[in-house]
């Protein structure tokens, strides 16, 4: 590698899993001037630390080359494909059906930055301007689908779009989506039913105030907590919503690859 390692670097075992997805062109292609693994390590460094692209350490390939390669990967959808396959493997190894029949929907608002402010909206409930990330996860907390909107777009307004993406990646196998009270209303329920999914609203117990950990709902809250480990995703630093969405899949690819390597290690050691 020719440099000291960073905590964000991909391990040999993880690289064996992800490399086939990242190889978009021959090694003698002009765009392959720098080692692909180093380009991926640089992308991981940006997502994990949150630094601007131009601030990449000098022992990585030039930031322009890393950014261009990252955009090629994002446009090709390689991280969505990687997360999809890692999720299937993890579910199978844990004795689950490869595709879930139930999901959890929720959203989180990321504050705007000068780069993303032009497309932000004001979230009155959170009292902040930014972008809203609408997600669907399975009952293990693994990402299935994601939609980025201005923060002033309500949760129920994007139910149909999120559920449609869920059904596309699961082959239409999802039957139930657990949601909070922000998704109440016939319009949201009808949008979900149009995709073959029944919305189940998990309500806050009466006479309870403040933060309450709700059954099933805690799964998606844990997924959001995982994402806070990636400093690039604590605010919306991206000019394009597609980049913000793609970097969420990069983060989950990192999480699931590490988890799969750990699980496979336990399986091998038990033989």
Automatic annotation (TrEMBL):
Location of region: Disordered: 102-126
Domain Insertion element IS402-like intervals: 10-82
GO terms assigned for molecular function: DNA binding; transposase activity
InterPro entries: IS402-like_dom, Transposase_11
Biased composition (Basic and acidic residues): 116-125
Domain of life of the native organism: Bacteria
Span of domain Transposase IS4-like: 99-256
Transmembrane regions listed in the UniProt entry: none
GO biological process, one term: DNA transposition
PANTHER family from the UniProt entry: PHP DOMAIN PROTEIN (PTHR30007), TRANSPOSASE (PTHR30007:SF0)
NCBIfam families for this protein: transpos_IS5_3 (NF033580)
Protein name, entry field: IS5 family transposase
Species, as recorded: Thermus islandicus
């Amino acid at each position: 590698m020719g440099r000291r390692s960073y905590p964000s670097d991909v391990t040999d075992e993880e690289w064996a899993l992800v490399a086939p997805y990242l190889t978009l062109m021959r090694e003698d292609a002009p765009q392959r001037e720098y080692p692909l693994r180093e380009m991926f390590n640089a992308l991981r460094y940006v997502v994990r630390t949150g630094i601007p692209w131009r601030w990449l350490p000098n022992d990585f390939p030039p930031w322009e080359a890393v950014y261009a390669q990252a955009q090629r990967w994002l446009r090709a959808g390689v991280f969505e494909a990687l997360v999809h396959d890692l999720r299937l493997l993890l579910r199978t190894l844990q004795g689950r059906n490869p595709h879930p029949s139930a999901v959890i929907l929720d959203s989180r608002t990321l504050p705007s930055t000068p780069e993303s402010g032009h497309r932000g909206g004001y979230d009155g409930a959170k009292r902040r301007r930014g972008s809203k990330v609408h997600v669907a996860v399975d009952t293990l907390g693994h990402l299935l689908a994601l939609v980025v909107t201005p923060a002033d777009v309500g949760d129920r307004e994007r139910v149909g779009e999120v559920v449609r993406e869920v059904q596309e990646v699961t082959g239409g196998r999802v039957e139930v989506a657990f949601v909070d009270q922000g998704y109440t209303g016939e319009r949201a329920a009808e949008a979900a039913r149009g995709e073959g999914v029944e919305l189940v609203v998990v309500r806050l117990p009466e006479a309870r105030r403040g933060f309450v950990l709700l059954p099933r709902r805690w799964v998606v809250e844990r997924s959001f907590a995982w994402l806070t480990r990636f400093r690039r995703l604590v605010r919306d630093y991206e000019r394009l919503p597609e980049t913000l969405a793609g970097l969420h899949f990069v983060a989950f690819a990192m999480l699931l690859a590490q988890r799969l390597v750990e699980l496979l290690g336990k399986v091998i050691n038990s033989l």
